[in-house]
Structure formats: C-alpha cells, structure tokens
TrEMBL record:
It is found in: Golgi apparatus membrane. Residues 392-401 have a biased composition (Polar residues). GO terms for biological process: N-glycan processing; oligosaccharide metabolic process. Pfam families: Glyco_transf_29. Its main location: Golgi. InterPro entries: Glyco_trans_29, Glycosyltr_29_Sialyltrsf, GT29-like_sf. Residues 389-442 are annotated as: Disordered. It comes from Coregonus suidteri. Transmembrane segments: none annotated. Residues 1-19 form the signal peptide. It is a single-pass type II membrane protein. This is Alpha-2,8-sialyltransferase 8E-like.
C-alpha cells in the first residue's frame, strides 16, 4: 500500500517536472499561427506575451482537458440558449457576419477591423461585389461541424462523422482530397480563405488563375468567406478571388466577412476574458456556428503539438507541419475558452478517434493503461498518461471511455483542434489596391 503511495507520489513529482519541460518545449511552436497584421499590430496597453498569453493556464490545460473531457458530454440546453442569446445580442452574426448590400449601403464607408484609420468608400463597383442578400436569414441548422485543421485530425477516421452534420464549416481552403477524406470528410458548406494562402499558393492571383479555380472544386458550391476588409492589403486580393470565381464560372460563392462583425466578436471575447491580439479564424467560425446551429461540434481543434491522449507528436496541421512565424493568436487561451463551453454543454469538442458507423460494436481499447507508465522515460508527454491514469482511476466508476470507443453517444472522442485557424487577415500586397480592382479580369 505504502509502496503504491510512493509510486504515485514519485509519478506526480516527475510529472510536474515533465510538464514544465513539455510546455516549455512545445509551447513556442504551438500557439503560433500566421496572420501578421501588416506592420505594427495595434499595440494596446496590454498586449499579451505571445508565448504566455494564457498565463497560468499553460500548466493546467492538460489537467483540465483530462478532467473535463473525461466526463461524458451532454448538451445543456439552458447554458446553450443563454450563451447563444448573449452572442446574438452582441454580435448579430445571423445578419451581420457578412457584408451584404443590405447592411453596407452604397456610399457608406467600410472600416477595416484591423486598420481602422483607413476606411474604404463603398463605390458602385465595390458595392456590386457584395452579396445581394444574407445567406443566413431565417436559416438555422440542427447540427454543424466546425473543422479546424489541427494535426490531431490525422488518422482520426472522423470524416464520416464530420460530414454527417447538416452544415460543415472549414477553415482556410484545407485539402480534402488525396486520402484526407477519411479523416476530415469532404462535405463543405462554408470555407474561409485567408489572403495569405492566396498569395502564397496562387501568386496573389496575378498570374494564372486556373489552378486556383481548380482547387476550389473540392468545395463544391460552398460559400467562400474572405476577410476582405480586415486590412487594406486584403482587399485587392480578395476582390481578385471573387472576380476569378465569377470569370471562370466556378460554383463557389464568395462572400466577405463583415469587419463590424469581426470587431464585435473581438469585443465579445475580450469581455469573456480572452486576451489576444487577433481572434483566430477557428474561434471566429465556431462563434458564428453557435449563432447558426443548435448543435455545434468542433473537430481538429487542439492547439498543442502532442496528442492529449496518445501523446505522440502531432504535426501543426493535418496536412503539413508548417510552422508559422508570427504570434498574433493565442490558441491555448482560445482553446481554454472553448473547453469551458464544452464543459458547460454549450458545444462539443471532439478529440479522439471516430469509429466508423459501420462497425459500432468495435470500440477501440482504452489506451491509457498503466503500461504507459513505462513511457515516462521516453516522451515528455507520458506525464499526461500518468495524470490520465490517475484521473481515470478516480472516475472508473463512471465507466466512461473518454478517449477511446465510438464517438457515437457516450462520450466524446473525436477531434478538436485548431490548426485551422490562421489569422483571417493576412495578405500581402498593399500596393495598388485601387488599380487592381477591375483591371485583372482576364
Ligand atoms: C450550465 O448548466 C448547469 C446545469 O444545467 C448549471 O449548473 C450551470 O450553472 C450552468 N452554467 C452556466 C455558466 O450557466
Ligand atoms: C425571415 O423571417 C421574417 C420574420 O419571421 C420574415 O418577415 C422575412 O420575410 C423572412 N425573410 C426571408 C428572406 O424569408
Ligand atoms: C497515420 O497512420 C499512418 C499509417 O498507419 C502512419 O504512417 C502515419 O504516420 C500516421 N500519421 C500520424 C500523423 O499519426
Ligand atoms: C466527396 O466525396 C464523394 C465520394 O468520394 C464524391 O462523390 C463527392 O463528389 C465529393 N464531394 C465533393 C464536393 O467533392
Ligand atoms: C444517440 O443519440 C441520438 C439522439 O439522442 C439517438 O437517436 C441515437 O440512437 C443514439 N445513438 C446511439 C448509438 O446510442
């Protein structure tokens, strides 16, 4: 008995040391996502320390995940309704998330949410690019999947589950073909597109544009949401994307994020205690989903480079391991807020593997048996196992299988991550906004 006690004590101490190590080791790479505000980010008096934005939560987030996530999830109608009303009152995503001809009249000025001092006059030409009507009016969906691009989705087998939602939201034109379908699905109703990716992958659409149009095929006739009015340099490239889609008769439906909406969301989340320079796309679309959908499921949102349960290293995205340079987002801090909503039954985060519907009886094994103790020496992350094991012991009576097993009803494995979510605001040619607007139809 005493032996066991010492053993546990030792593990706890080792665990603490290892946690510190893990966080220090990984944290530099985790919360970084590209999305550089152009030159100087608006410096507010309390710009958070990029690596430690989530002061105090770094040490506890793993613990929280293990603890909170290991309870079976149930939607709490009251909490959901309350949160949704709050969000709707403050942000009006249903009517305001996108720029439309109704909410942004001819002759008015668009104020960039990231660059407020240079408003843009709505000329007839610009006005004609706005959506005629709001695509969300009088529409709500029962179930929505919001798919982050986190490495945690790799080998998750969650594609079918993701696609089973009525409305599927994806971030930043993620690849869906070449074998990813099994893990991430391919149904898409709304997809965001950062100007940064248009610049990097498609030459800012200044040269050949067909490759871009072809890459959009996998998103069918989904809405493509562009942050055209976050920074001045986003506008020309976003307009080129829209013109390209029109000129090539692509079924894709480009629409622009409304900077007023993004601004109100930033204020909303600041009011919730989130400190960050810019909200990530992932949090933005998750917030939008909470206004539009009765049941919000998040996949691919997990901001750390190590699997929460299996502890193997994760790539930054499910499709690559590209690291980002700048640290304007605070993924761990955002995650902490989302996890709180998960715990309150407002939305559901999926972190485990999904079991294909075809074989519901075949649940995977619990992987955090004491065997993983032996892993202490090899991977920093084994600490998680130790903690998990302890947590598991505490909760065995509940017979939950938090990380394993079918993600059908019991509890929730499937995949929350957040590599999704680069800053909606990047782009990079600040030059010649005006000149380009129309000049580049070809
Ligand atoms: C969420 O719901 C539970 C039970 O319905 C309640 O105890 C809890 O206080 C609620 N949380 C919030 C933040 O409203
Ligand atoms: C939306 O609903 C409102 C009130 O329920 C109604 O007046 C309006 O015509 C509807 N709009 C559309 C486009 O269906
Ligand atoms: C996914 O599984 C394949 C085959 O089992 C393996 O080669 C690959 O490394 C795995 N990828 C990740 C990110 O775990
Ligand atoms: C998704 O995949 C299915 C089957 O592979 C295919 O039939 C369908 O066209 C794909 N959807 C899109 C939008 O590409
Ligand atoms: C899961 O819950 C839904 C709705 O509560 C129910 O219709 C479905 O049969 C359940 N599935 C399983 C596998 O229990």
């Amino acid at each position: 008995m005493r032996g066991l006690f010492f053993c546990i004590l030792t593990l706890l101490i080792l665990g603490t040391v290892l946690t510190a190590f893990v966080w220090n080791f990984f944290s530099d790479r985790t919360n970084v996502h590209p999305g550089s505000p152009p030159h100087k980010a608006p410096i507010r008096n309390s710009v958070p320390d990029p690596s430690g934005t989530c002061k105090g939560c770094r040490d506890t987030v793993t613990e929280k995940v293990v603890e909170r996530y290991s309870h079976s999830w149930r939607k709490q109608e009251d909490n959901f309704t309350k949160f949704r009303s709050l969000l709707r009152d403050k942000c009006h995503g249903v009517t305001k998330a996108m720029v439309t001809q109704a909410n942004t009249p001819l002759g008015s000025k668009v104020v960039y949410d990231g660059e407020k001092r240079k408003p843009l006059q709505v000329t007839p030409e610009l006005f004609s690019t706005f959506a005629k009507e709001n695509p969300f009016v009088n529409t709500t969906w029962d179930t929505c999947s919001v798919v982050g691009n986190g490495g945690i989705l790799a080998n998750s087998s969650c594609g079918e589950k993701i696609d089973s939602a009525q409305f599927v939201i994806r971030c930043n034109l993620p690849p869906l073909e070449n074998g990813y379908k099994r893990d991430v699905g391919n149904k898409t109703d709304l997809v965001t597109a950062n100007p940064s990716i248009l610049m990097e992958k498609y030459g800012g659409l200044q040269g050949r544009r067909r490759p871009f149009v072809e890459s959009l095929r996998s998103y069918g006739d989904s809405l493509m949401l562009l942050p055209a009015f976050s920074y001045g340099h986003n506008t020309p490239v976003s307009l080129r994307a829209l013109y390209t889609i029109q000129d090539f008769d692509s079924p894709s439906r480009p629409v622009f994020f409304n900077p007023e909406y993004l601004q109100s969301l930033a204020v909303f989340w600041r009011g919730q205690g989130l400190q960050t320079v810019r909200l990530s796309t992932g949090l933005i679309v998750a917030s939008l989903a909470l206004e539009l959908c009765a049941n919000v499921h998040l996949y691919g949102f997990w901001p750390f480079n190590q699997h929460p349960h299996r502890h193997q290293p994760l790539t930054n995205h499910y499709y690559d391991n590209r690291q980002s340079k700048k640290t304007v987002h605070s993924m761990p801090a955002e995650f902490d807020h989302l996890l709180r909503l998960h715990s309150q039954g407002v939305l559901r985060i999926h972190l485990g593997e999904c079991v294909p519907a075809a074989s519901p009886g075949c649940s995977t094994e619990m992987a955090w048996a004491p065997a993983s103790f032996s892993g202490l020496s090899l991977q920093a992350g084994s600490l998680g196992s130790a903690m998990a094991t302890l947590a598991q012991r505490k909760t065995t009576s509940q017979t939950q299988k938090p990380w394993a097993g079918p993600d059908t009803n019991v509890s929730g494995p499937s995949g929350l991550g957040q590599g999704a979510t680069e800053d909606p605001t990047q782009g990079s040619d600040s030059e010649q906004r005006t000149k380009q607007r129309r000049g580049n139809r070809r």
